[in-house]
Design a protein that fits this description.
The protein is α/β, with parallel strands linked by helices. The chain is built from 7 helices and 6 strands. It is 39% helix and 14% strand. The longest helix is centred in the N-terminal third of the chain and has 17 residues, at 49-65.
């Protein structure tokens, strides 16, 4: 029986350090992924959060148009597409749907559905689509999704999501580990 897999996009399908070259250039920094110990990227720069948010809104489409893929993601998703339904649910705003779909097509990433929520609260969409599992990089999202939807959540391990995780939130380091876990889980 096909499972419905929910997958976040940024920091999961794309490399978690995608935005860093843009931050480094705009703010004269030389940050690496290891420097990002909090999901809130405005903490990395010495400007007010509202000013950072304005900068982000201006650069966001460019970042999404040029996001590099995480290692092995395409191979794994092509294999899963044959056996599962792939639902991509992202906190990106809905006005970025065209940019997002074009990127998926250009990169050759298979998908059955893309949903942009405009918020980090993905629970309603997960329930609406009856997803069986979710993949995420944001710690509090992973925990809330697991607790509210009672589904396993694979948390892609990054320096910014190192807080404790409950049973049911499974840390993985890459897409090959995700594949191994999902392939074993989907047999049951």
């Amino acid at each position: 029986m096909k499972k419905r897999l929910g997958i976040d996009i940024d920091g999961t399908v794309t490399r978690p350090e995608t935005i860093l070259p843009y931050i480094n250039e705009a703010f004269g920094l030389s940050l690496s992924l290891e420097d990002v110990t909090d999901y809130d990227l405005s903490l990395l720069v010495d400007i007010p959060a509202a000013e950072f948010a304005k900068w982000w809104l201006n650069i966001e489409p460019k970042v999404y148009e040029n996001s590099p893929l995480a290692d092995e993601v395409k191979n794994v998703l092509f294999e899963w597409e044959k056996r599962h339904e792939l639902y991509f649910i992202s906190a990106r705003s809905s006005h970025l749907l065209d940019v997002t779909e074009e990127w998926f097509k250009r990169e050759g990433i298979p998908f059955h559905h893309i949903e942009l929520t405009g918020s980090h609260d993905k629970i309603q969409m997960i329930k609406k689509h009856g997803l069986d599992l979710f993949m995420e990089d944001k710690h509090d999202n992973a925990v809330m999704i697991h607790e509210n939807c009672q589904i396993p959540v694979l948390l892609f391990n990054t320096p910014y999501n190192q807080s404790f995780v409950p049973k049911g939130v499974i840390r993985i380091n890459n897409w090959l580990e995700a594949k191994t876990w999902v392939d074993e889980w989907s047999k049951n």
